[in-house]
Amino acid sequence: MMQIVVVAVGGAAGSVLRYTLQKWINETYLQSFPLATFLINVTGCLLIGIFYAMAEKGNLLTPLVRLLLVTGFCGGFTTFSTFAFENMNLLRSGDLFYFALYALGSLVLGVLAVYLGVFLVQKIGA
User: What is this structure's pTM?
Assistant: First the structure.
């Protein structure tokens, strides 16, 4: 039960920070490029790398704090960080086939799924 609470607290903090930063960046830098999401995704990747390295280095992060920061906070801040982290693990293990399948499949199928969702709602008239 404690793990669920820790993930929920970290996720809430990450989500609130993402919302606040996106709002501020989008109001400050008006442009067509999705700068806020781009910066948040890259920052989330940096953070998950830092947290992962700290946990692997030794006693710098307890398992509960790692759960709070990696799964909770980074998961709430951006799921892209988890996606990048999992791809890094596939590359590190030398599994190039699954890396390519996961990276390209997620991108292509993700965009197609969003398009399909919009299409279905427009067709149904909801």
Answer: 0.76
pLDDT digits (tens, 9 = 90+) for 16-36: 999 999 999 999 988 888 889
What are the helix (H) ranges across 29-95? 35-57, 63-66, 75-77, 79-92
The domain limits of the chain are 2-78
The whole-angstrom separation of Cα 29 and Cα 33 is 10
The DSSP output letter for 119 is H
| The pair of three-digit structure tokens given for residue 54, joined into one six-digit string | 């700290």
Q: Is 14 annotated as a binding residue?
A: no
- Is 75 marked within a binding site? yes
Please write the tens of the pLDDT for every residue from 34-46: 889 889 989 998 9
Q: Which of 81, 15, 79, 76 is nearest to 47 (CA)?
A: 81
